[in-house]
TrEMBL record, chains A, B:
PANTHER family for this protein: DUDULIN-RELATED (PTHR14239), F420-DEPENDENT NADP REDUCTASE (PTHR14239:SF0)
Nucleus listed as a keyword: no
Record keywords, A-Z: Oxidoreductase
Protein name, per record: NAD(P)-binding domain-containing protein
InterPro entries in alphabetical order: NAD(P)-bd_dom_sf, P5C_Rdtase_cat_N, STEAP_metalloreductase
Stretches assigned to the Pyrroline-5-carboxylate reductase catalytic N-terminal domain: 2-107
């Protein structure tokens, strides 16, 4: 598949590299490719600059959001939650129309320090905000409940014996995402229902963040024992 | 131990019966014992009236909230979240002072239908509200992330291979609760930290409710795979 991964941070890079390994044609979307490649500093999380990662993954293309989305069959939103609506607007409603939009973002608000709070919750979700802003996109929420490395390598934690959730209004789009998740190695995919169920998965972040503190590592995941 | 279980619903009855089995001296607290025993209708969840349960558990005492709390070494808040502050006020700050208060309640607001929303979240929690209202109580949040039957019989789900969380500001109180949880059969008790971490466990309810819908059963639990 031709896949656009919007976002050049850890989640975007991790997803893009895995999709490339799986044989997909991958374009990473960014606001300004020249500016992205010109940065030479590590980011706030200590990650090397994008140019370093790009040099290690020469087969991944880099393009403006709109260009990346336009040529893609499937679009991954790996931008930070606070910027997602703006970044998707730059991608362009026309370029998202009819396409599966896998939304991995979380509505985290770091303005009051750590742990972050959620800027939307309980009666609405970021996934639903995105769906309302881009009604012709086929939004599926998934993968937002674990750290990036576990998203694409479930076996890294407990031999892969844990769960991943999907929420969405379009059944065929959900099936496409479920197949993608299985190709990543996920074995327990739980379809929660329509996109409003993303309220539940986005509201997992507060305990996820506190578990990272209590366990001293981001390498864990939720399993729904049953 | 002498234990007061505040609340006559499913959670209160289930916890009280288990504590009795474990050899504790159990008093269930209610607003008006005569009125509680006089009810002959099933409740909104289809449970038989308290009097039926009482007849099956004659060794469990029933008393007013204040009387139950006054003679107890440990108090369990098994009242509905929306009523908890009022019920605990009836129990009396003096009767809670210095005692471990195991809070199982969830801040569910059913006024807008199902699924309920949370009436406090993200920047505060019901557990913290209770602690602020009763500063001399030693509040520990736990067990609120699973259905009542699983709280006291973890093996009912996946052979007991799942997790329970504790949050609290008083380390000795948390240890008392952890011992109690282990006596119930819990094997993976995760201490999340201070009482503010109850924001995380209370915010698990939205996905819990949606999982109950997707799985068609309340008999599941979260395991933190790691």
């Amino acid at each position: 598949m031709k896949i656009a991964v919007l976002g050049t941070g850890t989640v975007g890079r991790t997803i893009a590299a895995k999709l490339l390994d799986l044989g997909h044609e991958v374009t990473v979307g960014t606001r300004d490719p020249e500016a992205t490649l010109a940065r030479s500093e590590r980011d706030g999380m200590g990650n090397p600059p994008y140019s370093t990662w790009q040099a290690e993954h020469p087969a991944v293309a880099l393009a403006r959001f709109a260009e990346a989305a336009e040529q893609a069959d499937l679009v991954v939103n790996a931008t930070g939650g606070g910027a997602s609506l703006e970044m998707l607007a730059l991608a362009g409603a026309d370029n998202l129309a009819g396409k599966v939009l896998l939304d991995i973002s979380n509505p985290l608000d770091f303005s009051q320090g750590f742990p972050p709070t959620l800027f939307v919750k309980d009666t609405d979700s970021l996934a639903e905000q995105i769906q309302r802003a881009f009604p012709e996109a086929r939004v599926v929420k998934s993968l937002n409940t674990m750290t990036a490395a576990v998203m694409v390598d479930p076996a890294r934690v407990a031999g892969g014996d844990h769960s991943v959730f999907v929420s969405g209004n379009d059944e065929a789009a959900k099936q496409t995402v479920i197949e993608l998740l299985k190709s990543f190695g996920h074995t327990d995919v739980i379809d929660l229902g329509d996109l409003s169920t993303a309220r539940g998965t986005e509201m997992l972040l507060p305990i996820w963040l506190r578990l990272m503190g209590a366990l001293g590592t981001p390498y864990f995941n939720v399993k729904i024992a049953r």
